[in-house]
Amino acid sequence: MRLYSLSVLYKGDPKVHLLKAAYDVSTFNFFQRSSVQEFMTFTSQLIVERSELGSRASVKEQEYLCHVYVRSDGLAGVVIADNEYPQRVCFTLLDKVLDEFSRQVSRIDWPSGSPATISYTALEGYLSKYQVWPLQT
């Protein structure tokens, strides 16, 4: 059971953009890593774009399961995991990350933010903490 990506996005008008993301591509061949990361970013944006505000969904894409939560305020989170990772845990993680992100990053910054301008550093920690299921305390 493995998590590959954890992203925070903003579903604005007219398009979705990435605010912050963390990736674990260590299980992929060195030469594949950048294209795998691009695929995960693109897929996350596409899924958020096609999701309604206030919705949760799990979408199968190739051998991955993408879990998306788009809040009614436009803030969205996507977890990309393997098929065995528990769906309930993914949505719990998304709830936690989006709540914390919205407390730490001003809503004014969401429409114009980018990974370079948003200062939120917790994603890498969450990705590694939730990497192994069941969680080790």
UniProtKB/TrEMBL annotation:
Domain Longin: 8-127
An MF annotation (GO) of this entry: SNAP receptor activity
InterPro entries: Longin-like_dom_sf (IPR011012), Longin_dom (IPR010908)
Protein origin, superkingdom: Eukaryota
Gene Ontology CC, one term: Golgi apparatus
UniProt subcellular location: Endomembrane system
Gene Ontology BP annotations: endoplasmic reticulum to Golgi vesicle-mediated transport; protein transport
Swiss-Prot/TrEMBL keywords: Lipoprotein, Membrane, Methylation, Palmitate, Prenylation, Protein transport, Transport
Keyword Cytoplasm: no
SUPFAM superfamilies: SNARE-like (SSF64356)
Membrane topology field: Lipid-anchor
Family per record: Belongs to the synaptobrevin family.
Full protein name: YKT6B protein
Annotated source species: Todus mexicanus (Puerto Rican tody)
